[in-house]
Amino acid sequence: MKEFAFYRILLISWYGVAAIIFVALLFIPAPYGRHSRPSWGPSIQARFGWMIMEAVSSVGFCGFFLLGNREHTPVTLFFMLLWLIHYIQRSFVYPFLIKNGRKPMALSIVGMAIFFNIINTYLNGRYLNWFSTVYTRRWVQDPRFIIGLILFFSGFFINIHSDWILRKLRSEDSDNYGIPHGGLFEWISSANYFGEVVEWFGWACLTWSYAGLSFAVWTAANLVPRARSHHKWYITQFADYPKNRKAILPFLF
Q: Model confidence over 3-16: pLDDT tens digits?
């Protein structure tokens, strides 16, 4: 089978798997963070779990992106830079900022995340490197690129700012949670997840690719159910939790 045929089959299948994962997570929250459960087997410190699984995306994307002999354009190199901006922060900055970094994370979760990141980096990195039409310099003037870039950085900064608000609520290694206030937390329970969803839909727009869209769909499939679980948890834990807040979409859901 030629690689392009394999790639198309994998990409189409990946959308189907995302739909299954979305439904499953509506009923079974992924067991990490406040939803951790010991029944998921051996664990490591969450800080190292985040580093390992997110670093796969940095290294994997560069590997798949650089694989082959197509000459890279300034636009595709810019795409790689955007990817690395996100994942270097997630791999080597965020793990050292979280206050409960010593909390256990199941190795099974780390393994599943690594598997996802390998497939995701292959689909996106290989597309930009080999299967895409060449992105010329004129692409940066296209409204899809401009709108996508605005969404990408808006989501990126919403995510980082929201994580900062959450960190301020907790002391080192504390398992205590509080009600977050400020930023988009005034309207939704999971402003950090909202930022990440916006960021990767921005990526899908600025690359204008089914590969980029698959990542955005997977991000939503993973984080929307988790935001829903967080919202229910907050309501259960705090009698004074703001009634006007939604889970992840202001005024809607």
A: 889 999 999 999 99
Instruction: Give one DSSP letter per residue of 120-167, joined into a string.
Output: HHHHHHHIIIIISPP--GGGGGSHHHHHHHHHHHHHHHHHHHHHHHHH
CA-closest candidate to residue 78, choices 154, 155, 152: 152
pTM of the entire predicted model: 0.92
- The residue among 122, 146, 22 whose CA lies nearest residue 65 is 122
Q: How many helices (H) and strands (E) does the chain have?
A: 8, 2
Using pLDDT thresholds of 50, 70 and 90, give the confidence band for residue 222: very high
What's the whole-number average pLDDT of the chain? Answer: 90
- Maximum separation of any 2 CA atoms in the chain, in Å: 60
Cα separation, 203 vs 87, in Å, equals: 13
Check: CB of residue 165 under 8 Å from CB of residue 185.
yes
Model confidence over 70-108: pLDDT tens digits? 778 899 999 999 999 999 999 999 998 887 777 888 888
Q: How far is 107 from 41, CA to CA, in rounded Å? A: 7
Q: Which residue carries 């807040």 as its tokens?
A: 245
Note the residue count of the chain: 253
On whether the CB atoms of residues 51 and 91 are closer than 8 A, the answer is: yes
Per-residue CA distances from 13 to 107, 144, 222 (Å): 25, 26, 17
The DSSP code for 40 is: G
Distance CA 251, CA 159 (A): 19
Provide CB contacts within 8 A for 4, sequence distance 6+: 131
User: Are 245 and 187 contacting, i.e. CB atoms less than 8 angstroms apart?
Assistant: yes
